[in-house]
């Protein structure tokens, strides 16, 4: 399309900066000089996608190779989608503005289940056939990576190749192989068979799935020598792992508009509800030196005046205090503020508090996750009420007057007593404030409790549990509301209908592909956004396809059942998940990885916390 | 140590062009953009002394989203009186990307409140079709535009007497209109008002157009410096 006409059309939509490209540090190459063009697609808005660290890492990594040009693509907001469809503008990449249907590889990152309809919508906007079997030629290949590939099955009909685990190595090996096959004029099926031999590559079309009469999976059978099971990939040494020296700096404000420095991967804790805590094992840390060097380079190349440390449970970094000392030194000098997004209650010291408050005094957030000690033991949160109260005391002494607490609802074994426990705990924190002699004077306290809906996820000990129904969730939310008797406690909770759909896809199988396609045809998109989410259309799609969504979300699964994701090996054994679930039933906790190895299976990599001295 | 130096702050005015993909950046986002460019430049600029220090920068005259410009003014303050300011444009051009070009630097002679007008070049992608109609439209004694007031009401405004330095040209592919309109804190007229009024009066065909700000002027009609 004519550039002028295109730019005029941009001026008719909200936030044209989303589609303009031209950001500082974005990468322009000569398309005649590269052998592989990669469209990196984030199936959500520009503001959300540009905040995502994984995309920044892989964008820079791919572009560091001379013969690969990786460009960014985001889901156009519905106002611009209409303009695109009305004017026959196919989905394009931001850098070159070329249609992505002409690219070699179209890659999606799967960060959350509710983005699946956007993936189909983006393929349709690109003019690419949705189903893998309807795309005969080698290019464009449609690939996907990210956490949701740990149960990739609902998208198996649409995606040619999934990458399991961390992408840095496997992606490049895959692209190398693709280059060779493209040069030699090989077919798509020849290439897919060969690619399946790369560790971490899952080609769903090379596996047949059969079902039992009751709808459960009977068997998953590999074809053409495809590996079974398919094991995830990890980076073994994070100090040697590629990390970008610069980020593309967006021209419009995005959700997380700051430099982000990763400090470790994985989590030692093993909270039984938490998928990230299992699929990213084992814990591997970067050294203090690497972190400082990378963080300085990032600030220098972006001009950001804020940097945030990124990891699960940041305060579990083994050298957190020396790291903060070093970082505070130079960030202060450079007038850059440092933020720590993920802190745990039990190792939250006065020193740590002083350090973060010397930078920026935002609210403090903790995640007890459950209201009673019994339920916290069930989920293996491993924190006590006294630890929660003493952390809040420390915070109040330090001048904070508001704390935010995250909880979950609908956890296995949960009773109304556990729900009431959330309100009671919040009340105890309020009391703690007023019992404090040297509390901040003249100020009231605010304890805000934010309650998310528990969704059982694959590869966790709770993968066997039914998700509670929307109706039961609504009742619990109302009950909690009724248990709160003071305005000093504010309560917010999550939309139940989206959690239900999330639960269906999280543990879904290949038969959901037709449902996603039917919902897409009905116009479902941006399901993660309340203003666009239409459950009715989704329910119609389920009925049309003859599929009962409750079969996936609300059913108890036996240990013997073959789960749709059991052939995807995240190196945490099913036996371990079962034993963890049994411990949960008895409210027995498991110590974290640094205290004691619980033999989950992640030591097969021969690296990380599994081999630290205890 | 820092505050002792404050009295010696040196005001510096930079002039740049803003074109291409950067015209989709709003004024507010431009502020963030330039703050980061200045930070990356490591120029000895003055930082505000609040809890979250940031480089002090001021834009003389906001530019509407979608417009290009050949004369954008950015003021900064330096803490180093001896810094050779002639070097600044090259330093900034090395890091601000291909759509911004700094081309002038000097110590300001006028305060930004003294901006009185701005000149524009508006080119229509009309194949020369609207030249006659636009010429006739602009020859009228009274040109009524609808302007939104700050309260959100629509006000009818006759801008015929406010247009200066008008010239209209025709080429094979387009019609180009040059004009100067009041700009700044006292009175501000956006050329979009005129274009909208013209299209409303001639409800036939709509042609794409591009607005380029060519100059910012003081009360005497001289280039604002």
Largest sheet of chain A: 6 strands, mixed
**What summary fits the major beta sheet of chain B?**
8 strands, mixed
**Fraction of helical residues of chain A:** 25-40%
Total domain count of chain A:
2
SS strand fraction of chain A: 5-15%
CATH superfamily of the largest domain in chain A: tm_1862 like domain
Q: Secondary-structure blueprint of this entry?
A:
The complex is a heterodimer of chains A (614) and B (225).
Chain A: H1 3-10, H2 17-20, E1 36-42, H3 46-49, H4 53-63, E2 68-74, H5 78-86, E3 105-109, H6 116-126, E4 141-145, E5 161-163, H7 167-183, H8 188-195, E6 201-202, E7 207-211, E8 217-222, E9 230-231, E10 259-262, E11 264-265, H9 275-279, E12 284-285, H10 288-302, E13 306-310, H11 320-333, E14 337-339, H12 350-357, E15 364-369, H13 373-378, H14 385-397, E16 402-409, H15 416-435, E17 446-453, H16 470-483, E18 489-493, H17 496-506, H18 512-521, H19 535-544, H20 549-553, E19 568-569, H21 574-585
Parallel strand pairs in A: 1-2, 1-3, 3-4, 4-5, 9-19, 10-13, 13-14, 15-16, 16-17, 17-18
Antiparallel strand pairs in A: 5-6, 7-8, 11-12
Helix pairs in contact in A: 6-18, 7-8, 10-11, 14-15, 15-16, 16-17, 18-19
Chain B: E1 10-18, H1 27-41, E2 57-59, E3 68-78, H2 88-93, E4 100-106, E5 117-124, H3 131-139, E6 144-148, E7 154-158, E8 164-170, E9 175-182, H4 191-201, E10 209-217
